[in-house]
Amino acid sequence: MDFTGRRSVGALRLAVAAAMLSLAAAAARADPCEAPLPRFGESFVGVVRYVGDGDSLCVGPTLDPTSWIEVRLADF
Question: Rounded to two decimals, what is the model's pTM?
């Protein structure tokens, strides 16, 4: 193999590595729900603002994440 062949193999390896990195999953971010939980028995109302995964979501009355409460679905 001459120098040109080595260079093309190196370029191919670099292209494959770049493609694999671009397809890698992005880091998961934490749920943006920031409001404190209501006291036991206290009710709250809001719109689902964010769905984090299969069993948690944020509910809040405004678009401000500091007013969002995290709701976890049990036995899901």
Answer: 0.55
